[in-house]
Write the structure tokens for this entry.
Amino acid sequence: MQFIQSYTLSNLNEIANMRKIVLVTVLLFVTCMARPQQKRIVLQNVNVVDVEKGVILKKQHVVITGDRISRIANSSRYTSVAGDSVVDCKDQYLIPGLWDMHTHVWIPDYFFSLFIANGVTGIRGMFEGIFLANLWKKNGNTPGTLTPAGFYAGPIVDGPTPIWPGSVAVRDSAMGRRVVDSLKNKLHVDFIKVYSLLSKESYYAIADEAKRQQIPFAGHVPNSINVVDAARAGQKSMEHLYGFPELASDSSDYYYQLARGEIKDSLFNTRIARRALLFRTFSQKKLSTIIEELRKNNTWVCPTMTVNRGIAYMKDSSFINDPRMKYVLPMMKSMWNPANDFRFRNVTEDYFDNEKKEFQLKKRIIKLLHQGGVKLLAGTDTPNPYCFPGFSIHDELQIFVDCGLTPLQALYGDRKSVV
């Protein structure tokens, strides 16, 4: 099964003004919804960003017939036809639709409109009700609807006491196998999402059953294993860079023993102290061995740096006063207040200082992953704090460029498909 075709967009200061790019992308999406209509729509004098060849085709006429681009021609070679509906796109740019590869759709009409308005024509849903998700998939292929294409996991698959209500609680390996069978053959999910609290035995059973049933699995690297274990087990993508600072530490064995409660050390009896240990002992040499395993196993990484940044800086005035807040529903604004979030309401300022350091370390890791040939996916973890539906995919891609990807690599790179 083809899992996703992913195109990404950077800031593209070297290519074009992003708002103009998005306007034409959305225009193309909307015009292509009317399949029965064969009247031609012509985007006149648009600059086409060729993401495969890495060039910009200046002043092109893009002809849309029905739901297909039927011709792209230089202005001098375009011949008008009676009845053409012409849209002047001078100084604007055309790109493929964007995919947000890590989303959670809470309010579909609201989220989908913001996705489409920002050029996001496809999403990977990481925790939704699968019956609704299957309806959204149908709508995404139906003319006249503003619904992005999508691939959906349905419920999270977690350990015996899941973190999030609505997850599937897996007690043992036998249950893990049954869950994979049910999710694939009864709920018809597109892939299995694994989560943090799975035991090692349950995780490996899920991985084996997913392979047997020929369905991808992706998600968190559970606390019980490490990223190399997950890559070798066949996990298709890893989210949030969980497990990377841990395994890339020169003190990784000691850290894992501390984190799992196997040993005690009064110097590291808090999460903040343990994370600080990772920052001090990060090893680029150790990361290079991880990179080799990821590349060998064709493992993709979805860093979701937007949410990492949003959590680290959630008390920063530049986030609180972001002009895009006017598009955020009051309910979401309330949830973004750390006082109302069970994960953050009792943490100290030291926690956020630590998160800022981890954000910077993860930027360094992304650069090294990219240089090492590991395939990256752009996802936001919308609607976590300051992950604006639709808007934040542009933030994510700007961060990719900040980490050393060129605009072309951020726009396309080697991301042809996750199979």
User: Anything to note?
Assistant: The longest strand covers residues 40-50. Residues 249 and 281 are 5 Å apart (CA to CA).
